[in-house]
Design a protein that fits this description.
This protein has 319 residues and is of the alpha/beta class. It has one domain (2-315): Aldolase class I (TIM Barrel, Alpha-Beta Barrel). Helices cover 47% and strands 11% of the residues. Strand 5, helix 10 (200-212) and strand 6 (217-219) form a beta-alpha-beta unit. Helix 2 (19-27) packs antiparallel against helix 10 (200-212) and helix 5 (76-87) runs parallel beside helix 6 (109-116). Mean pLDDT is 92; it is low at 1-15.
């Protein structure tokens, strides 16, 4: 565990934080002005975007999507259909790009690996006792290693909120650092489950702790509780990523997930991202949208911008 903490850094390079340093970095963060944060997040969602910029944003939203299916009733057949949608979101339009990744449970990773071979779409797997993040640590680490061994390019795990909310920041950090080591060369996304953290101060602290432990991405939510991503919580995480980059030189991605269903929402998050972290983050390497019901709305909006007419969802394959 100590070695994992020393090696915390992520696939892009090592950022050597000892547990004490990481806890100090997280707990000395300045208090978040909740009113100001929410007002700024809301204001940035009201910007008028012209047609060409909107088409660029819609194209980027597709390229940054992690097309997700995380249901107990998932079958190989469903994953095959999701992978086909991921590769060619609109089979009738070759100008529409592929999504960034398909996100599934570990046991279905081999199906996705086979179906996505030769494409640019990555295979992402949840692991580590998703969605609770609890359970014996060694079992969680074993599941992470297994997902990577099965072929996952990326692993989405969950912060142990039990430890974090109890004030055991060092313990939470060590678990994340061990998960970083278990993931090996795979990219690691750490889900904070912002809807359970209780305040923006805690969202910021959890963001810093995860980044110090070597997360390649910090992610808002599992999508398995009532409160998913919100513009304010995402903005709080983006500001934490901005300040972490300024202090350490390491760029960490941000993923929003949980309740992102419309093109308007996706564009709102892209505006927040651009205004907070700048154009270097407008890439699938540093921004993702986890969604199962977003893609068709984006496709309908693209068609509307191009032709001036809406098509109904029946014109597109099922998400």
């Amino acid at each position: 565990m100590a070695r994992a903490a020393e090696l915390a850094g992520g696939a892009g390079g090592l950022a050597r934080f000892a547990p004490r340093e990481a806890v100090r970095l997280a707990t000395r963060t300045t208090a978040v002005d909740a009113v100001g944060l929410e007002e700024r997040a809301a204001a940035l969602g009201k910007r008028s975007i012209k047609r060409e910029a909107k088409l660029f944003a819609l194209d980027l939203a597709i390229r940054c999507t992690d097309l997700t299916t995380l249901e107990g009733a998932d079958t190989p057949g469903k994953v095959i259909a999701v992978c086909a949608k991921a590769r060619r979101p609109d089979p009738t339009d070759p100008t529409i790009p592929s999504v960034a990744a398909v996100c599934i449970y570990p046991e279905l990773v081999p199906v996705a690996v086979r179906e996505l071979e030769g494409s640019s779409v990555r295979v992402a797997s949840v692991a580590g006792a998703f969605p609770s993040g609890l359970g014996p640590l060694e079992a969680r680490l074993t599941e992470i290693r297994r997902a990577v061994e099965l072929g996952a390019d990326e692993v989405d795990i969950v912060l142990n909120r039990s430890r974090f909310l109890a004030g055991d920041y060092a313990g939470a950090f060590e678990e994340l650092a061990a998960a970083r080591e278990a993931a090996g060369a795979a990219h690691l996304k750490v889900i904070l489950e912002t809807g359970e953290l209780g305040s923006y101060d805690r969202v910021r602290q959890a963001s810093v702790l995860a980044m110090a432990a070597g997360a390649d991405f910090i992610k808002t939510s599992t999508g398995k509780i009532g409160v998913g991503a919100t513009p304010a919580s995402a903005l709080c995480m983006m500001e934490a990523a901005r300040d972490f980059h300024a202090e350490t030189g390491r760029g960490v991605g941000v993923k929003v997930a949980g309740g992102v269903r419309t093109a308007k929402q996706a564009i709102h998050y892209l505006v927040l991202l651009h205004e907070t972290l700048g154009p270097d983050w407008l890439t699938p390497e540093r921004f993702r949208i986890g969604a199962s019901a977003l893609l068709n709305d984006v496709l309908m909006q693209i068609n509307k911008e191009r032709t001036g007419r809406y098509q109904g969802p029946d014109y597109f394959t099922i998400d």
